[in-house]
Design a protein that fits this description.
about 60 residues, mainly alpha
């Protein structure tokens, strides 16, 4: 968290993330991109790759 670089497979929790940081991140995504990501969905695959997939799914209206 805050290390400056992240790889797509890096795990949010292993990098020092926790539920409060996740909620802040998801709120920022909602504010900046207008996407609503469920906390439980994020924790099912807490990687940058997983989050990107959730954002893309939300932006596409739920259709891949």
């Amino acid at each position: 968290m805050g290390s400056g670089s992240a790889r797509p497979e890096d795990n949010f929790l292993n990098a020092g993330g926790h539920s409060i940081k996740a909620m802040r991140l998801l709120a920022l995504l909602d504010e900046e991109l207008g996407v609503t990501i469920d906390l439980v969905e994020f924790f099912e695959n807490p990687t940058l790759r997983g989050l990107t997939a959730l954002v893309r799914l939300e932006l596409s209206g739920g259709e891949l």
